[in-house]
Amino acid sequence: MTSPLTLWTGFVVLFAYSLRFTEGKPPTDILYRWTTVESTLIQFAVIGLIVYGIAGLGRRRQLLALRRPTSWRRAFGIAMAIGVMMLVLSYALGPLLNPGREQGVTPDTWRPDHAAAYVANGLVICVVAPFVEELSPSGSRTASSRPFRSSPRSAPASPTCAAASTASTPG
Question: Is residue 59 scored above 80 in pLDDT?
Answer without folding.
Answer: no
